């Protein structure tokens, strides 16, 4: 893949990450650097420390004194080699940051580096994110380690290029597993495992000092390993919780439509409870098998499904038909009630993520069992016959084959009928 060089980053680099490299430090600046380095030994460096123009902290400081033992620094040539020149056959996907490629590293690339597949994320110079988001991921993932956060192996900063190297997650994103047309349906127990581990990752961020607000929690930022171990990724939009508590900011609302909390979208008020709302949307997606927004109609999943979450008699109307009735009715009821609490429009009435984790732990022992016999009535939505309400097709469900019919149903095309 030919690489484009359209611009340099010098004019866009955060002052504290660039100017200190090119000038000598005064005595006061040297004291500040020692203070930050000392802080890094007992308390993690915050995003505000790195972005504060008065701080002399540079990317070299991040590498050598704070996150050096945990991260490898790669050259662009090394990353081009391990991805076979960013070959299209190694392309894993593309997001707001840029394309992601699969590669392979070993101790021949970097001494002491374990042989393993990796994911290499290349910043798109024309994309919606930039140096600030790249640096945020290094600051957070370079210092914070948890079994439910994706592991950052290293990074590259060379000329205008900004790249990040992560552990490879074999099953990709939860978004692909849930919504890809020909993917196998996730069993109920697997969905609850994913829900719990994603909540644990969020809990770790919220309980950090200072707390970290994810700000873009969604299914595409939840990655799955071969055994469905769940890890959060893409923290480039994250913010320190202490910076956001009483400082609403309407100038730069970031996040994803359909997931962002209403108080953040409307007023710019960002707290850890904003993440809890986004988590509620993801939990709702796991229950329904539907994305956060219907691309055809523009309708939000929350608006459609939330009214039914606390009604146990009508809850079956929104459960994912690809489960084919194989889920615990009691487990679904409890998960739906938890989602309803997370989606409360009043952030003060949402449960803290620790309470979410505790609630999900109790749902791990429910087996995948038939809730009841069921019939799906699928309305033909094509042509004049659909407008006249004719030509309905009925499929009887016995746990076999319905998920593989490939009907391409939207939210309103199906409804289960208890028999």
UniProtKB/TrEMBL annotation:
Species in which this protein is naturally found:
Cucumis melo var. makuwa (Oriental melon)
EC no.?
A: 2.7.11.1
Annotated region Disordered: where?
28-56
Q: Where is the Protein kinase domain?
A: 86-375
The catalytic activity, as recorded, is:
L-threonyl-[protein] + ATP = O-phospho-L-threonyl-[protein] + ADP + H(+); L-seryl-[protein] + ATP = O-phospho-L-seryl-[protein] + ADP + H(+)
Protein's UniProt name: non-specific serine/threonine protein kinase
State the Gene Ontology terms under molecular function.
ATP binding; protein serine/threonine kinase activity
Q: Does the keyword Nuclease apply?
A: no
SUPFAM superfamilies per record = Protein kinase-like (PK-like) (SSF56112)
Keyword check for ATP-binding, yes or no: yes
Give the enzyme's main class according to its UniProt record, as a single word. Answer: transferase
Q: Which PROSITE patterns match?
A: PROTEIN_KINASE_DOM
Could you tell me the keywords of this UniProt record? ATP-binding, Kinase, Nucleotide-binding, Receptor, Transferase
User: Where are the coiled-coil regions?
Assistant: none
Q: Please give the InterPro entries that the UniProt record associates with this protein.
A: Kinase-like_dom_sf, Plant_Ser_Thr_Prot_Kinase, Prot_kinase_dom
Extract the signal peptide range. Answer: none
Q: Where is the composition biased (Polar residues)?
A: 39-56
Source organism, top-level taxon:
Eukaryota
């Amino acid at each position: 893949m030919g690489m484009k060089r359209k611009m340099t980053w010098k004019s866009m680099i955060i002052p504290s990450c660039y100017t200190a490299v090119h000038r000598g430090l005064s005595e006061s600046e040297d004291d500040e650097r020692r203070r930050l380095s000392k802080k890094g030994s007992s308390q993690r460096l915050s995003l505000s420390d790195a972005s504060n123009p008065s701080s002399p902290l540079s990317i070299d400081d991040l590498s050598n004194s704070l996150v050096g033992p945990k991260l490898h620094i790669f050259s662009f040539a090394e990353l081009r080699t391990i991805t076979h020149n960013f070959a299209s056959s190694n392309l894993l996907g593309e997001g707001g940051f840029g394309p992601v490629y699969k590669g392979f590293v070993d101790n021949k690339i970097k001494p002491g580096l374990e042989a393993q597949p990796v994911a290499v994320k290349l910043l798109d110079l024309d994309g919606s994110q930039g140096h600030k988001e790249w640096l945020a991921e290094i600051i957070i993932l370079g210092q914070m380690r948890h079994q439910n956060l994706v592991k950052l192996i290293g990074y590259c900063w060379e000329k205008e290029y900004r790249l990040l190297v992560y552990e490879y997650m074999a099953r990709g994103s939860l978004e692909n597993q849930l919504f890809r047309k020909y993917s196998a349906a996730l069993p109920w127990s697997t969905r609850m495992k994913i829900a719990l581990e994603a909540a644990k990752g969020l809990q770790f961020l919220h309980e950090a000092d200072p707390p970290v607000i994810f700000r873009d929690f969604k299914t595409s930022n939840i990655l799955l390993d071969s055994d469905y171990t769940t890890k959060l990724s893409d923290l480039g939009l994250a913010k320190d919780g202490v910076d956001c508590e009483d400082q609403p900011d309407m100038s730069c609302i970031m996040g994803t439509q359909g997931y962002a909390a209403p108080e953040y979208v409307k007023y710019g008020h960002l707290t850890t409870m904003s993440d809890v709302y986004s988590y509620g949307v993801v939990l709702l997606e796991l229950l329904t098998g539907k994305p956060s927004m219907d691309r055809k109609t523009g309708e939000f999943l929350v608006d459609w499904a939330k009214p039914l979450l606390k009604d146990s008699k009508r809850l079956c109307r929104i459960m994912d038909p690809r489960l084919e009735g194989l889920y615990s009715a009691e487990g679904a009821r409890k998960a739906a009630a938890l989602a309803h609490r997370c989606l409360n429009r009043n952030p003060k009435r949402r449960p803290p993520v620790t309470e979410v984790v505790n609630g999900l732990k109790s749902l791990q022992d429910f087996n995948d069992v038939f809730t009841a016999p069921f019939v799906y009535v699928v309305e033909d939505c094509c042509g004049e016959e659909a407008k006249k309400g004719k030509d309905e097709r009925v499929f009887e469900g016995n746990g076999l084959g319905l998920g593989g019919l490939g009907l391409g149903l939207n939210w309103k095309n199906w409804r289960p009928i208890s028999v």
